[in-house]
Task: inverse folding
DNA sequence: CGACGATACGGAGAGGGTTTCCGATTTTGC
DNA sequence: GCAAAATCGGAAACCCTCTCCGTATCGTCG
């Protein structure tokens, strides 16, 4: 790629990230082009449409998820808190811009093109699950992708409905309780 | 309302239902007006914007939910199957048109305008929960609205991601397991 | 029945968004 | 430095939402 083209590409990406965070995934492409100081033609040559642009951005963001896993595991929390904390981290990560969670979640499991996009999310989630399995804290039979979908669903709802942090946490707790070896019931047998 | 106005109103509503089912909730308003045989002005006088039109349509659909409850309860299923069947009914109902599930779920709990729209859903869900509570099959602490949100999230994901029926069922089963009193755990009590 | 005010209609058009196209401009290799 | 190739910018074609207003229809009252 020619040097000036690379500059345009990078600047568009940086600006698009900002604009999508500010205005959601339906922000005007013209606005992005203008703020990046390029013409519309330039924007569209690099990214044929909005989806391509979002693809690249989401890929970057999801890549950061592995860092969140390590951090979560290192905290040494008990199973239920660990799971909830991890889910909260996922929601936070994939909700970077309004509409992003819904788009990403919709793509989960699409064998089509964006395999690599959610792959990072899936393997990160997998490692948390394995950590809990090793401690016998988790019920069998739940597929990683399915769990990602559920958490993604919560993220999408939280995002679209403007849910408060506590409400979101409650939803994630419900999911966690479904996965764990019934902790609530255990409490009831002293 | 004048007789001709009523005719227009009804025809727009009928056509909009069809178009939204065919093309999703982002279908062109012009298209709806054209198919209904009215001008754009007429459409917008009756329904100031797309949301109003969707509101009226969704309200109708949600109203049918109570019927689904009665039917589900009457089937006399064991708790887990009852819950899953009910959740499936909800998903089916609120996914009538593409994008509908996401919109409805986003509105859940919005004290703003569409209270009456999700009210039906919430009370229907409540009656299923009470039925299960009465049998001691359910864990306490889960709010009806929260559960509706979770199920709505699944519906939105299933809708947007084109999930298969079995995948959707798995997700709903996970939620159900989080709500039910887990019999397995009881075994581990000393 | 006929006519008049109220009500409703339709479609042109303003405003804004996406995407394409191509002449002008910049970069690069030689 | 020069020409070819790559890239740029923004005008313009196209579609969408929503508004405005002259025209047509309805309902009622004399």
Result:
């Amino acid at each position: 790629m020619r040097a000036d083209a690379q500059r345009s590409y990078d600047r568009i990406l940086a600006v698009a990230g900002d604009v999508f965070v500010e205005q959601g995934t339906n922000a005007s492409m013209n606005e992005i082009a203008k703020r990046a100081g390029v013409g519309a033609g330039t924007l569209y040559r690099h990214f044929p449409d909005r989806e391509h642009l979002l693809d690249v951005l989401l890929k970057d963001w999801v890549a950061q998820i592995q860092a969140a896993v390590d951090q979560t595991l290192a905290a040494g929390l008990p199973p239920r808190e660990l799971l909830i904390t991890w889910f909260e981290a996922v929601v936070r990560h994939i909700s970077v811009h309004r509409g992003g969670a819904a788009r990403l979640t919709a793509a989960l499991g699409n064998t089509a093109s964006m395999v690599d996009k959610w792959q990072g999310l899936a393997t990160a989630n997998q490692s948390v699950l394995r950590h809990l399995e090793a401690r016998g804290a988790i019920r069998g039979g739940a597929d990683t992708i399915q769990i990602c979908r559920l958490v993604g669903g919560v993220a999408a709802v939280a995002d679209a409905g403007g849910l408060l942090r506590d409400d979101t946490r409650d939803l994630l707790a419900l999911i966690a309780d479904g996965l764990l070896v019934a902790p609530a019931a255990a409490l009831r047998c002293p």
Q: What stands out?
A: Chain A has a mean pLDDT of 88. The two ends of chain A are 67 Å apart (CA to CA).
